[in-house]
Design brief:
Blueprint: E1 5-6, E2 15-17, E3 21-23, E4 26-33, E5 39-42, E6 46-48, H1 52-55, E7 61-65, H2 72-96, H3 102-108, E8 109-110, E9 123-127, E10 130-131, E11 134-135, E12 138-140, E13 146-147, E14 157-169, E15 174-185, H4 208-217, H5 219-299
Length: 300
């Protein structure tokens, strides 16, 4: 059975990356969990920013809006972006044949997480997979009955399965290739004739009444948890920045030392040649004196 991870339990250090291979006009690095297992993430309950009619297009992306004050799914993809940059930096010699500075890699990387204004909630955008104009994303209602993507109403509450597939390297940039494989709408719909296995578990999908009750009874705990997560994230970001800064400083110090050693070597070589030249001139002068003395003796 396909393994589905939660963003709160998946460890990014367990992800493995293949060496990028050429596919048409781009290079692609597959992302796996451990021994080549695909990485599927189940989201918490999120809001849908578009209607199903708008999503039923080959170029569509779905906007998932985070409701409430639990930003942990956003923080997960923020850390995933940082992890992808660091992984590319550490593997640049093996992947590209040369060591690339981390700031160059970071500039090339197109992040999936976008900044948001203070007082507002973040959102995440993901692709909907299509094959020859056919939507390959399977959708279900609350009762796990298959529905069409066009049945999804704007502002519906959704739980999604996201496939974190790999890194796609273009000519001037690269990004993490993710898309939605399944959607479960938190509302009832008319039963359809097409069925498939729904991988989404029920524990995160609650009725609106239950969600309101939980929000009313646990505001302090939720707030404290968010504060703890934020503090941990800031600490991790600080340590990661210090590590990267140290690597960059060590690299610069190494280059500076190599330049200094080369300069000292050149100066030493010049000093040795100058001394050899002086000795040669002294020898020539000494020979001239000896020749002059012999000439005078012969003349006398």
């Amino acid at each position: 059975m396909t393994q589905i991870f939660r963003h709160t339990t998946l460890k990014l250090d367990d992800l493995t990356y293949t060496k990028p291979e050429k596919q048409g006009n781009f290079y692609y690095s597959q992302i796996y969990h451990g021994d080549q297992k695909p990485v599927y993430i189940q989201t918490p309950l999120l809001g849908c920013g578009l209607s199903g009619t708008e999503l039923n297009s080959k170029k569509s992306t779905i906007q998932l809006k985070i409701n409430g004050d639990d930003f942990s799914i956003y923080d997960f993809f923020l850390k995933l972006d940082d992890h992808n940059v660091n992984q590319t930096f550490s593997m640049s010699k093996e992947w590209f044949g040369k060591d690339l500075p981390v700031n160059v890699i970071d500039d090339m990387y197109r992040r999936g997480t976008k900044p948001f204004e203070k007082g507002s909630n973040p959102s995440l955008n993901f692709k909907i997979p299509f094959t020859k104009e056919k939507c390959e994303c399977i959708c279900f209602n609350k009762d796990k009955q298959s529905v069409e993507i066009t049945d999804i109403a704007e502002d519906s509450e959704l739980v999604c399965i996201i496939h974190i597939k790999g890194l796609k390297f273009l000519k001037k940039e690269y990004y993490c290739d993710c898309y939605i494989t399944q959607i479960k709408v938190n509302e009832e719909r008319v039963n359809k004739s097409f069925f498939d296995e729904c991988l989404i578990e029920d524990e995160d999908v609650q009725d609106a009444t239950d969600s309101e009750k939980e929000h009313d009874t646990l505001p302090r705990e939720v707030t404290n948890e968010k504060s703890i997560l934020k503090a941990e994230k800031e600490k991790e970001d600080k340590l990661e920045k210090e590590r990267i800064d140290k690597l960059e400083k060590d690299r610069k110090d190494k280059l500076e030392k190599e330049k200094k050693d080369q300069l000292e070597k050149k100066q030493n070589d010049l000093s040795i040649r100058e001394k050899e030249r002086e000795l040669l001139l002294e020898r020539v002068h000494s020979l001239e004196i000896e020749i002059d003395t012999l000439r005078k003796e012969l003349e006398s």
